[in-house]
TrEMBL record:
Ranges in a coiled coil: none
Name assigned to this protein: Mucoidy inhibitor MuiA family protein
UniProt lineage: Bacteria, Pseudomonadati, Pseudomonadota, Alphaproteobacteria, Hyphomicrobiales
InterPro entries named in the record: CHP02231, DUF4139, DUF4140
Pfam families, A to Z: DUF4139, DUF4140
This protein's record includes keyword tRNA processing: no
Residue ranges annotated for the DUF4139 domain, each copy included: 216-433
Signal peptide: 1-25
Keywords: Signal
Residues in DUF4140 domain copies: 37-134
Length: 437
């Protein structure tokens, strides 16, 4: 039966460059991995775990490879084991080594090895060339050269010298090409989040007897987020009624310099580093006119880029169904847990998850502005019947099963109404007639 470790301090000190008393205790390397991530709209809360075994007395657990985007003040330590132990100071230091060896770093190392091999071959060919030249010079400088031997000497020297020169020129050209590839690979490595060294975490632990257990680090990281995207499908029945299905999805991505593979992923509808209280008002001076740029400063959230998705054709014999996230609601937010264990690439590549959907009646009507456009456009007004607000994000529009375009869905609180356009309606004709004044 496991006993909880006694936590004396969740986070006591951050010493970045100077060694402290942790150097006096036995350091025990703990292999750790990211086990779970709670992804907010603007950041992520990471849970990293590892197994440890310590002798009686003082020890220091070392967990390496923590994200370079770590918010150090957010670090917390938890643990459980088969014996009582005391967690003391927690120290965070920049890692002295490189980051996780990514594919880009491996490619760069391979190119550097190839360049060194070419350099060695160039030096060997130049040594051979100098030897041939020295032989020719020795033959020409001989005190009593025999005329009968000179033609044979030149015949022996010339082909070897030509071959050495050709080989040297070819090797130089190949090395020049490798140099260009190396420069491109270096740029890729610099942009690769996994190439940046992260942090090492040192956890002091005092065990009353030899103990085994599991330690967990929880910390906040930047450069990880998710954004809402939607599918809106309108099935037109009888005017003015239609049936609208809204599918809620999430686009998730991370560039935190950590490997997130086979993790439990939870998506939260809150912001982790946003404002948490009413800002304090300052004294304002009223003056005529706008700011110098002619525009007032207004809050703005940039919607995520559109994502092209492939819609599978219907098959009568085999039906495929998208996996949906499990949904739960708290007092002021909603959580969606991605089905199964998932992986998020460290290079910022986007993954899309289906979160939830709801169906509702929609009031369908036609709008037109003949002064600018003589077409009549079909609009649908519907209510957000979900208990979770619909956040600002792009929406892909389908009418009677056909894709018709993309739009932006504004923020819609629960039980409030929203309106979306669903393309032109050819069954309605509009003509603009100007009345004489």
């Amino acid at each position: 039966m496991q006993k909880k470790l006694l936590i004396s301090a969740a986070f006591v000190a951050l010493l970045l460059l100077l060694f402290n008393d942790t150097a006096l205790a036995d350091q025990i390397e703990v292999a750790s991995r990211v086990e779970a991530v709670t992804l907010h709209l603007d950041a992520a809360l990471v849970r990293r775990t590892g197994e440890f075994s310590v002798p009686a007395g003082d020890s220091t657990l070392v967990l390496r490879g923590v994200s370079p985007k770590l918010v150090q003040q957010s670090l917390r330590v938890k643990g459980a084991g088969d014996s009582e132990a005391l967690i003391g100071a927690v120290t965070v230091r920049p890692s002295m080594g490189a980051g996780v060896e990514s594919e880009a770093a491996k490619k760069l190392a391979k190119l550097l090895d190839e360049r060194q091999m070419l350099t060695d071959r160039i030096e060997a060919s130049e040594t051979k060339k100098r030897a041939i030249q020295n032989f020719a010079k020795a033959s020409a400088d001989a005190k009593e050269p025999r005329a009968v031997d000179l033609p044979a000497s030149w015949a022996a020297v010339t082909p070897g010298l030509d071959e050495a020169n050709d080989r040297i020129r070819d090797l130089h050209r190949r090395r020049l090409t490798i140099d260009g590839d190396i420069e491109k690979a270096r740029q890729v490595v610099q942009l690769d989040p996994l190439s940046a060294p992260g942090y090492d975490v040192f956890v002091e632990i005092t065990a009353h007897s030899p103990a085994k257990g599991r330690i967990a680090l929880e910390y906040l990281v930047h450069n990880a987020k998710w954004a809402p995207v939607y599918d809106a499908r309108l099935n037109f029945e009888t005017a003015p009624k239609g049936r609208l299905t809204l599918v809620r999805r999430a686009e998730a991505a991370q560039r935190v310099g950590e490997v997130w593979e086979n993790i439990r992923l939870i998506l939260k509808t809150t912001e982790a580093v946003g404002a948490i209280a009413t800002p304090r008002l300052s004294t304002l001076e009223a003056s005529a006119g706008l700011p110098s740029d002619g525009q007032a400063d207004l809050p703005f959230r940039k919607p995520p880029d559109d994502l092209v998705r492939l819609e599978s054709e219907k098959d009568r014999s085999i039906r495929f169904q998208e996996a949906s996230a499990n949904q739960s609601r708290g007092a002021f937010d909603a959580s969606f847990e991605a089905p199964g264990l998932v992986s998020l690439p460290a290079n910022g590549a986007t993954k899309v998850y289906r979160l939830a959907h709801f169906e509702t009646d929609a009031n369908v009507f036609v709008k037109s502005t003949p002064e600018h456009d003589s077409n009549a456009y079909l609009h649908a007004r519907f209510s957000n019947t979900d208990s979770t607000p619909l956040f600002l994000g792009p929406v892909q529009l389908y009418r009677d099963g056909s894709f018709i375009g993309r739009a932006i869905l504004e923020h819609v609180p629960s039980k409030e109404t929203a309106e979306l356009g669903f393309g032109s309606d050819d069954s309605v004709s509009v003509r603009r007639i100007e009345q004489p004044t």
